[in-house]
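hi! just following up on the protien thing from before. the input was this:
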Amino acid sequence: MATFAVNCLTAREGLEVEVMAESNFIDYVKIVCRSGRGGRGMAHLHRAKYIPNGGPDGGDGGRGGDVVFKASEHVNSLLSLYYDPKCIAQDGGPGQGQKMFGKRGKDLVVNVPLGTEVYDEETGLLVADITEVGQKVVVAKGGAGGFGNVHFKSSVNQAPTEHTPGGEPEERRLRLELKTIADAGFLGFPNAGKSSLLSSFVGYA
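and the predicted 3d structure came back as:
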């Protein structure tokens, strides 16, 4: 079957991706990965009936989730990424009062076959060579959580309202290539008859 290209544009995410496919076995795909945004810090002042001047108690925001590629022996194609080429992790939650941290964003773990090479589409550099079962590679790191106002208390500012937003997510355009591995191979000297032997096997089959 001839190789064909598909361009996808998702208005909601504003991401454009291009993927290449051949038949149902996909060994080359271009995807977009985006980690989670860090949750904003909380500006909150403690209030209790018998505790005057309670002071700041705004907690930090949660860290955004990472996008992680994991090598799996149960996957032998990049087909799932062909149909869903956007890998977006969960954002971190905002901080809360009583110095409570925001919820950490859930990591997005994507199972890929052994032999997958990951390249940065913009630079062309090799990001990872996934060769071992269970190997994990973080391809987009989540944004850090913002600081709550509890961090800004000082001797001259007992009731700060300052807080910081969460860290920006990391977005990357990646190209994945699957190295095909033969079940068997011929090893021998030049002109030793390897091609003739293979031809006889193919003809016999």
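DSSP finds two helices and ten strands in the chain.
Residues 95 and 102 are 4 Å apart (CA to CA).
cheers
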